[in-house]
Amino acid sequence: MLPREELLKGVENRDSVARVIDQAEQAIKTWEVVLTDFLSPPELAEIHRVFSRLTEVQLLAWGGYPQAERQRIAIARGEIPLDQSQVAIVVLEIAGNFLFDTATHRDFLGAMLGTGIVREKTGDIIVLGERGAQVIVVPEMAEFLQMNLQQVRSVPVKTQQIDISELKIREPKKKELTTVEASLRLDAIASAGFGMSRSKMVDLIDAGDVRVNWKEITQASFQVKSGDLVAIRGKGRLEVGEVAVTKKDRYRVQLTRYM
What we know:
Strand content: 25-35%
Shape: globular
Strand order of the largest sheet: 10-15-14-13-11-12
Number of domains: 3
Structural class: alpha+beta
Helix content: 25-40%
CATH topology of the largest domain: Structural Genomics Hypothetical 15.5 Kd Protein In mrcA-pckA Intergenic Region, Chain A
Number of strands: 15
CATH architecture of the largest domain: Roll
Number of helices: 7
């Protein structure tokens, strides 16, 4: 048995992590590969952090393409080889003419949830503008959605399964920049990276809209370091690159903003 209480100590996403601990114990006992549903980036980061201390189980996350935000995890005993093909996913195309009634990510998600499925059964949604969208789901939902997802906003749609090779993935836009700051405080680095005032950034941090390595941070004075990922709800992500100290004892920080 895994040390459940020790593993759950101080975790944010307690229910999700507890569920994965149950599944890991099942994988150890049965010698089978056990799959989670789709998990969000904060859940994934915390689960990887918690399980990194264990040697008896291994995890492999996959969401259909390398930059996928929502991913399923395959869990197996340490001795069993794992690869992406064992993470079962299906791609559906939701096709319709959205030229005169544009649909957003939220519209497609809302239409899917409106059929009665839960969020955990769906991965990323890739919006294709006026032609519709592609969605990644667990295989057991594919037939149900093909039958029941017939409209998004006012637009009639046809939902059908396509091959994963037909995914239309756009590389995220990124911008490289360098800033020189007196400290590595979160509010200083993030305001420079996202191009907004320090006071506005403090407001976002206070409101709980800012995460570092997918962990919610509410202290503007939090110290970031090289390799950290700063995410702001609705505004993209910022990767902290190389940090160097100048002759005047300030910090020159390389930043990459993903939009």
